[in-house]
Design brief:
Number of helices: 6
Structural class: alpha/beta
Oligomer: single chain
Number of domains: 2
Length: 168
């Protein structure tokens, strides 16, 4: 097991977690069977890689950067056994699953407007980006507020992110 990070303080914390869980640390990533990478890209041709905070579909595991010690330990053991581990939904290529019954059904244009609002654009800027009128943007915002039961633009974006309707 090896740790790949540029931050010495973060390395010390991860080493404490890893050794506390009973893993032995290798001298280099080349000698390790699993590498725990902290927000950095690692060559996928080598040992299994579990990343914290970032990742790609080809890695053995991806966990949130704030994963707890038990999650890190379980992910390292699973990766060493040849399994793939994802702290939340794995990154997907292509189609996404159909929204659950709890999630509101938004039109593709409403999703575009919500994502643009999430980037901090004004109605005028959203209209310019999408090639529609400001009146149409306002109409879509009102529809979003109603469907998401939101009280403000920030509330709509928050609910859209939480329900995985948009990503920023």
């Amino acid at each position: 097991m090896a740790i790949a990070t540029d931050d010495p303080v973060r390395r010390a914390g991860l080493e404490a977690i890893v050794t506390g869980a009973g893993h032995e640390l290798a001298a280099s990533t080349a000698e390790a069977d699993v590498v725990l990478a902290d927000t950095m890209a690692i060559d996928l041709d080598g040992p299994a890689v579990v990343t914290l905070g970032v990742g790609d579909v080809g890695q053995s595991g991806i966990l949130p950067r704030d994963a707890c010690a038990a999650q890190i330990d379980a992910a390292l053991r699973a990766a060493a056994a040849g399994l793939s581990v994802y702290g939340s939904d794995p990154p997907q290529r292509g189609f996404r699953p159909f929204p659950s019954e709890d999630a509101p059904l938004l039109t593709p244009r409403e999703i575009e407007v919500l994502a643009a609002i999430g980037e901090g654009l004004s109605n005028k800027e959203v209209a310019r980006r999408l090639g529609i009128s400001q009146h149409t943007v306002k109409f879509h915002c009102e529809s979003l507020f109603r469907k998401l039961d939101a009280k403000s633009r920030a509330d709509a974006v928050h609910k859209g992110l939480r329900q995985r309707l948009i990503e920023l």
